[in-house]
Amino acid sequence: MKFVHYIKIKVLVCMSALMTMILFNGCNYFAKPLELSSEHFLFVATTQTSSIAEMQEGIDLAEEFYSTLANIIPREYELDSVIVVQLNGKYRGPGTYAYMDNQGTIQLWRYPEELGGYWSLFAHELVHAIAFDTSVKVGVYEWQSFGFYNEAWAEYLSLLIDPEKTGFPFYGFQENVVVGHWIMHGGIAIAKLRTSHEELNLSCPHQSYTMRASWFRFVDETYGRNVTLEIMYGGKEMTPVVVEKILGESLIIVDNKWQKWVLKHYASHPGADAQAASYRASISYYQPCQ
Ligand SMILES: [Zn+2]
């Protein structure tokens, strides 16, 4: 009898250990790895975080974005041959934001469907990752001034290649309405975002990501694509002297012109004030930076 008792206890202990493991790891414990590749991408996930059908949808979109970007980025700036995209499961707040890691892998989490699900921020991260190896070789990540231009360019290009996107930072609201409203709101100026990038980038995201993208659109549409490409892929650190030489004007003048350009668009946009108010209501948790 004693032996039977012992076996029963052993089984109970094993079962509770298994239950604990399942509780702590969720169903991840039973998840199987999934991989799907295409000409330029390797998508990795598990049966818990995605499915082959969803990965196929992502990889089709990825190839579409890739070919649009390949036509924008100068040919001599070599693109990565394989870009790894990891699908990590449901977005769970801080710590699960989409980003490109230090190996050039795109890490994605699934946002609510109305924000674009897994592909909500994919276009932006792809702009960062598409020429990661060349960027490392050029040494851009060592440049102090790189952050502002890198993020401005990534968001602006993501709007060009994925104009229907509904996630952060515009949430489907009209660009000039959002940015015009931030300019009128006051607080941090574009020049401050440029000089204090590390400090302000993630602490003021609704202002920094929208204003920078708009600034690059203005430069692209006013000074020409060659100018924007020279800033981003010219191989020189984007110090004020270098950028002003490429633009042919001082940054103070360019920033002022950009501001006027945005406000003019805002003023001529029907219902801009009401749309700006609903944009702010949709991010009511956000405390604007001053
Ligand atoms: Zn970015």
Structural summary, described in words:
Helices cover 56% and strands 9% of the residues. It has two domains: 30-138, Glutaredoxin, CATH 3.40.30.160; 140-290. The protein starts with a helix and ends in an 8-residue tail after the last helix. The model has no long low-confidence stretch (mean pLDDT 92). It contains 13 helices and five strands. The chain is globular, with a radius of gyration of 23 Å. With 290 residues, the chain is an alpha/beta fold. The site of zinc ion (ZN) has 4 residues, from helix 3 and helix 5.
Task: Kindly summarize this structure in a few lines.
The chain has 290 residues and is an alpha/beta fold.
Write the layout of secondary structure elements.
Layout: H1 2-25, E1 33-37, E2 41-46, H2 52-72, E3 83-90, E4 99-100, E5 106-110, H3 122-129, H4 132-138, H5 146-161, H6 175-185, H7 190-195, H8 197-200, H9 205-223, H10 225-233, H11 240-247, H12 251-267, H13 272-282
Parallel strand pairs: 2-3, 3-5
Antiparallel strand pairs: 1-2, 4-5
Helix pairs in contact: 2-3, 3-5, 5-9, 6-9, 6-12, 9-10, 9-12
Bound molecules: zinc ion.
Zinc ion binds at residues 124, 128, 151, 154.
